[in-house]
């Protein structure tokens, strides 16, 4: 073997410790390292099995390595990977047709993540207002506890101060109101506002569904003032609530919708959807990204969309939601000292810890992992469940058993 090949790391063992040696420490990942997945089943380096109720943070909505997605991606991999924006490609044209036919939108812009989709939406809104009304109409209204991504613009628009601290100076002309507070919205949304951005269901902020009256009032206030209503459906979209997009369930149509996460089931892709009129704001040369609408990502996303967007699939999401909520209500009944309420929508659910257990969501997550169940948290007081939308009733029951074993262990300790 030649010396160069000999020195490659491809075959060298790596462990969780390697993370602490060579990764920028932005995350504190679990001690176990998953190596293989199938559906909601996952195995780590030691061969231990886990039931995955995280879907990679509401991403792998069709489960790990869904055979249909593996098949279409493999075919595309053998066909064409990347072109750049000097050329279009068949998969992205088909994906745009499918998304615009399935939603209010007439036009799609593709990028690689949720933050980038929101960045495009916010830039569109600023430019549209600037062109149509003048530079004074630049204020953006967002909600406290919201999450819109980690670029400097989206983190500034997001409603969690801890994510902007130390990154100042921040982009100006951004204000926050309390989520679901209609009076605050009326007070804040004046003629100088160019955009209102909101998650129909707040994910990171604790799994809090928007009140229909609140979202309807935001629509009315935007219509009155000429501001654009942006729905960030990066986490709650693509079937997660039991509707293809959450706005459909609310009957409130935004001017711009952003999607990512589950759109690619783990293949990175983001999308900004909007109307014909608004799309003209981003004319040739105004915005762009190298990989957006890449044939590999677009191929996977089209297949995801066609799988999820059927009445039978979405009806099953609602049914699985009812079963999961019943399972979680059982936990609240049997462990009132640990859990207080369940909230959320569809298969994006938050189990809120009781006062006595405040701050212990992470401990519960770790105890569940030891039992072989992966769950998420949303802040320190909410255990968040976001299983793949293909979850079976048996898997929901199993998750309940594993959560009980985890809590029993913690109560004994
Ligand atoms: C995850 C998330 C984002 C950011 O998406 P990235 O792909 O991480 O950039 C934006 N908005 C919401 C609601 C999210 O949940």
From TrEMBL:
EC code(s) of this entry: 2.6.1.11
Catalytic activity: N(2)-acetyl-L-ornithine + 2-oxoglutarate = N-acetyl-L-glutamate 5-semialdehyde + L-glutamate
Positions contributing to pyridoxal 5'-phosphate binding: 114-115, 147, 232-235, 290
Localization annotation: Cytoplasm
EC class name: transferase
GO cellular component: cytoplasm
Cofactor(s) in the UniProt record: pyridoxal 5'-phosphate
Primary location: cytoplasm
Co-factor note (free text): Binds 1 pyridoxal phosphate per subunit.
UniProt pathway: Amine and polyamine biosynthesis; ectoine biosynthesis; L-ectoine from L-aspartate 4-semialdehyde: step 1/3; Amino-acid biosynthesis; L-arginine biosynthesis; N(2)-acetyl-L-ornithine from L-glutamate: step 4/4
Signal peptide: none
Transmembrane region(s): none
Pfam families, A to Z: Aminotran_3 (PF00202)
Residues annotated as binding N(2)-acetyl-L-ornithine: 150, 289
Keywords: Amino-acid biosynthesis, Aminotransferase, Arginine biosynthesis, Cytoplasm, Pyridoxal phosphate, Transferase
GO BP, one annotated term: L-arginine biosynthetic process
Positions of post-translational N6-(pyridoxal phosphate)lysine modification: 261
One Gene Ontology MF term: N2-acetyl-L-ornithine:2-oxoglutarate 5-aminotransferase activity
Subunit structure of this chain's protein: Homodimer.
Other noteworthy facts: May also have succinyldiaminopimelate aminotransferase activity, thus carrying out the corresponding step in lysine biosynthesis.
Entry's family note: Belongs to the class-III pyridoxal-phosphate-dependent aminotransferase family. ArgD subfamily.
Protein known as: Acetylornithine aminotransferase
Organism, scientific name: Janthinobacterium tructae
Gene name, Swiss-Prot/TrEMBL: astC
